Fold this sequence. Notes:
Bound molecules: adenosine-5'-monophosphate-propyl ester
Oligomer: single chain
Number of helices: 22
Largest sheet: 8 strands, mixed
Helix content: 25-40%
Radius of gyration: 24 Å
Shape: globular
Amino acid sequence: xxxxxxxxxxxxxxxxxxxxxxxxxxxxxxxxxxxxxxxxxxxxxxxxxxxxxxxxxxxxxxxxxxxxxxxxxxxxxxxxxxxxxxxxxxxxxxxxxxxxxxxxxxxxxxxxxxxxxxxxxxxxxxxxxxxxxxxxxxxxxxxxxxxxxxxxxxxxxxxxxxxxxxxxxxxxxxxxxxxxxxxxxxxxxxxxxxxxxxxxxxxxxxxxxxxxxxxxxxxxxxxxxxxxxxxxxxxxxxxxxxxxxxxxxxxxxxxxxxxxxxxxxxxxxxxxxxxxxxxxxxxxxxxxxxxxxxxxxxxxxxxxxxxxxxxxxxxxxxxxxxxxxxxxxxxxxxxxxxxxxxxxxxxxxxxxxxxxxxxxxxxxxxxxxxxxxxxxxxxxxxxxxxxxxxxxxxxxxxxxxxxxxxxxxxxxxxxxxxxxxxxxxxxxxxxxxxxxxxxxxxxxxxxxxxxxxxxxxxxxxxxxxxxxxxxxxxxxxxxxxxxxxxxxxxxxxxxxxxxxxxxxxxxxxxxxxxxxxxxxxxxxxxxxxxxxxxxxxxxxxxxxxxxxxxxxxxxxxxxxxxxxxxxxxxxxxxxxxxxxxxxxxxxxxxxxxxxxxxxxxxxxxxxxxxxxxxxxxxxxxxxxxxxxxxxxxxxxxxxxxxxxxxxxxx
Length: 650
Ligand code: PRX
């Protein structure tokens, strides 16, 4: 077991919310949590339909929940519009001039959008999309950096009933191409480039390369961000700023009346094998779930300034930068860049500048910033902070305690929120005014969520016994299917136990606290980003020198996990460091820099079963520097293991 997971499981400290925090919190005690939790799981339909009254409906639903042969439907017969619930509804409540977004670019010249301004921008762009022929049910691919046009484009799609599919701007052309091809998108929104660490990244160049193999894309809208010169193809590529200014583009766009179960967005994520899966989320259930989780877990108040450091290209940004906060009428800081550029105080400067009260980030960033030393945060005024959050990977107790002490000054609760692209919103989490915190534990299930840990045979694990983390009941924010692949939905998530299989292992302690231990599949969490080994492997084998490749995670002090690749070269190819660097660059260029292996080991052979299946389990043990291989006698050639272990890259 990697050392940091081991240290999580040995943690015993408990931190209680302060009396002051409790007094002002929406949920104020464990007694209140337990009472409401009991109600929510005893009668989830009554619970969720009660919560759903808070949204603006064009028509109320007929049925709260229906199981359609394993595909769950929420609020059928109901109609609403998600963008109206995030904008028009908030404006109607008197918050037209409240700031919705504070955008903090790398240059530091921040820009704000009130709810009123945001609605106008969204409507204008929605009208542009319509003019370009986008209709309800069409897929729009969005490949943008962290600029305001990204949430504007998403909300514009929601307004007209188009389905957005956002691709993280850190991905490169092969990843973009695969996602466009699977979603059959017909319009792409991108930018001339993006800034990161003072450098310019050629988004449009990547898009052009991908589009050579994406015939479904008819139009491309390009945001001018960096001013780099780009190729604009006649009758296909258009500038955002020109389209938006055309005379017939109006300031208001009539919202589409969307059925609860029509598609809202697709977001691709990595699974066990094969290409990434298009996770599909629909309208009402998703909106309700992110609305309610955001409200209670972040204990949101009208005056709060909430800063989530995630990229909108991942689910955290969808749910907790865009839909959850806006539907609550919150003020959200979105930033462009990285935590350590130009200096390791980037986050703390932003907190000071905008008087951020709630801060949500990933353990990787916390570890990286803790390593830089306390002087960076101590030079900034962080006194506005009242609540901290973390997401994306297990947090080791040392990092948790540093976060709580140095950033939160021992007064801010830390909500360690466990969830996934598939779950739409947070499922296991503390409630900051109620839950006693144990560093490293995501604590308890949210309302309406019945989480459990099972053994291989499906029986319930004992307290403190590790096993498969499952969710026993449907919830409104859950994925509805895998885009174009309903069989994969059933097989991946429901076949093993008949209840939702998360893909994580966990244990529940004697107090009912959940401790997430890691993935059971071939997903690698590099700096909290979800990378599929299959995507990296197929990129490596697409290189002319490579015959075969297998990729596994190994523990990394800052990133949590990093990528270790075992590569078998084609006959006659020389093994040298230059080729290793070439292979790393190949993956970075094709899939994206985050998927780049940190370590590459050339191998003559890989451990395989007699039927030819690569035993990644054994490769993982080697990459961890351990010799705890288990039974290797079932391998076609057990001798391979020793040779690989001897040559392991330290
Ligand atoms: O392994 C779990 C880990 O991230 C996975 C989901 O990744 P993704 O779909 O990219 O969504 C990330 C943001 C929600 C999970 O299966 N994970 C997420 N949150 C935590 C976590 N592991 C431990 N603790 C968490 N708080």
